Fold:
Amino acid sequence: MPKSLGEIVRDKLDASALPREEPVKLWAGNGRGEPCTVCEQPILRSQVEYEPQYAGRAPIRLHIGCHGLWQAERRRRGYLPNDD
Ligand SMILES: [Zn+2]
Structure:
């Protein structure tokens, strides 16, 4: 059975493939066909790409929905402050 996106987010957070920390900066723009760090599907030009920037690690790229799942899981685990 394929994993749900929520499970993928949890696995990638556990494996540090997804960062726990807040990015230094969050860019958003049109997709460029690059794969999403969560679902590994390309982010199409017709879609919005979120690109959290980190010092000392390659930027990650996420669909809006995948970004939302990542945020939600980090909040659930207490990696993020609750007041944003
Ligand atoms: Zn995605």
Q: What stands out?
A: Residues 36, 38-39, 41, 62-63, 66 surround zinc ion (CB under 6 Å). The longest strand covers residues 25-30. The radius of gyration is 12 Å.
